[in-house]
Amino acid sequence: MIEKLRLTTRFVDDQDEALRFYTEKLGLVKKADESFGPDNRWVTVAPEQDETVEIVLELPDWSEDEEEADRRAALVGEQPALAFTVDDCHATYEILRERGVEFTSEPQEQPYGIEAVARDLYGNGVVLVERPSETETT
Question: What range(s) does the VOC domain occupy (predicted)?
Fold first, then answer.
C-alpha cells in the first residue's frame, strides 16, 4: 500500500533562480543537486525538518518528447499551491515579507488555523498554515 509522499515537482524556467528563491527567500534547504549529462540536472529542496518529502525543481524540457515538454512549459506559473505548516504564521509572514516574498493575503484566521498566501517567483501559490494547538481545539 502507499505509505507516504516522497517527491512533488515544480516546473521552473531556471533551476538556479528557483533554487535561490526556495532556499534564500523561503528558507528551505537544498537536498539534491546532481547533473545527468550535459543538459539535465536533478535539484530538490525541502523544509529542514521534513525528512519525508522533497520538491523537485525541474526544467519543463527534461522530457525527450517535444509535446510533453511544451505541456510542461505551459504549467510554469500555473501549478497548484504548495502548502507548508509553520509554527507561527504571523512571524513567518513578516520574515518572508522582509526577504521580498510577495504575499496575496496576510495571515488570517481560518477554521483550520491561521493562513497566509504568497507567490513564488513564477506566480505559483505558497500557502503557510499554522494549525491551532491541541489546547486551543479542546
Answer: 4-131
